[in-house]
Amino acid sequence: MENVNVDSNPSPADGDPSLPAGGQRCGLIAIVGRPNVGKSTLLNALVGQKVSITSRKAQTTRHRITGIRTLGDAQYVFVDTPGFQTRHSNPLNRTLNRTVLSSVSDVDVVLFVVEAGRFGLDDAKVLSLIPEGKPAVLVANKLDKVVRRAELAPWLKSMQERHPFAEFVPLTAKRPDDVKRLLEIVRPYLPEQAWWHDEEALTDRSERFLASEIVREKLFRLTGDELPYTSTVVIDKFEEEGNLRRIAATIVVERDAHKGMVIGDGGERLKRIGTEARQELEKLMDAKVFLELWVKVRSGWADDEERLRSYGYE
């Protein structure tokens, strides 16, 4: 059901977390890279379920998303970060870049994601953020798109000359065998300590936060390149009534023209955004969802530090 209207770090378990708990391993892994290299797709594959939104539009991820995967004696706590911004320096992008920097500094290992066979200036700027001495794994993603595999060997050699990577992992994030191999490679870098989360946990983010992310994903996917990425979603109401979730959300855009793009002819596009978001939320939450969407214009919100904070940007 939808109604369309137009107008931090996890806490360790009890006890001393520095002491092994029956041989358990647990650690933080940052996933970093320039925009649109497949970080969110990789996070979802590593966790085994969707916890971060994906889109062809660059800069889909705007927050530090934590995904959790427990396998055998190891608990992997992944941090998916926004793509580091080098082209625009407005308050929104500066906030996103601070998130990347803080994430890289306090993890046990870094997954540096690039497109296999490619390395540009934007990749180099992200690579420079990895602290000296921090274990880093080069994840060469989108291997399935490489036509000439023979060219990968010299490329990998050139990457090793750029940074002392602990491991090289060419893969395709959508291939389960590749993801399993990456998990096995990362495991030894996790400290021996008690798990921070329940074995069944998938994310430390709330259902309210996931609701805003899913609506934003559908917004970007259904507007394509028409809508600038300086659009966001704010949850106005999130109520639980047994197996029912009542959610009211506002899609915030910068201009009246953008508002028209979101609404579409006769409100059809906004209705489709609501329908697809509701269907995915019901699957994700295993509950019935009543979703109400509004569209409002807030000029210059991405340049307003106070408004950014009110919209949940750290």
UniProtKB/TrEMBL annotation:
PROSITE patterns assigned to the protein according to its UniProt record, in alphabetical order: G_ERA (PS51713), KH_TYPE_2 (PS50823)
Membrane-topology annotation of the record: Peripheral membrane protein
Q: Where in the cell is it found?
A: Cytoplasm; Cell membrane
Chain intervals for the UniProt region annotation (G3): 80-83
- Note the superkingdom of the native organism: Bacteria
Annotated region (G4) at: 141-144
Q: Which residues form the KH type-2 domain?
A: 215-299
Alphabetically ordered keywords of this record: Cell membrane, Cytoplasm, GTP-binding, Membrane, Nucleotide-binding, Ribosome biogenesis, RNA-binding, rRNA-binding
Q: Where is this region: G2?
A: 59-63
Era-type G domain ranges (all copies): 25-192
State a single Pfam family of this protein: KH_2
Q: Where is this region: G1?
A: 33-40
Annotated stretches, region: G5: 171-173
Give me the residues that bind GTP, please.
33-40, 80-84, 141-144
Does the record bear Cytoplasm in its keywords? yes
Compositionally biased tracts (Polar residues): 1-11
Partners and quaternary state? Monomer.
Report the NCBIfam families cross-referenced here. Answer: era (TIGR00436), PRK00089.1 (NF000908), small_GTP (TIGR00231)
The free-text function statement in the UniProt record for this protein reads: An essential GTPase that binds both GDP and GTP, with rapid nucleotide exchange. Plays a role in 16S rRNA processing and 30S ribosomal subunit biogenesis and possibly also in cell cycle regulation and energy metabolism.
Q: Which HAMAP family did the record assign?
A: GTPase_Era
Q: Which family does it belong to?
A: Belongs to the TRAFAC class TrmE-Era-EngA-EngB-Septin-like GTPase superfamily. Era GTPase family.
- Protein's recorded name: GTPase Era
Organism the protein comes from: Caldimonas mangrovi
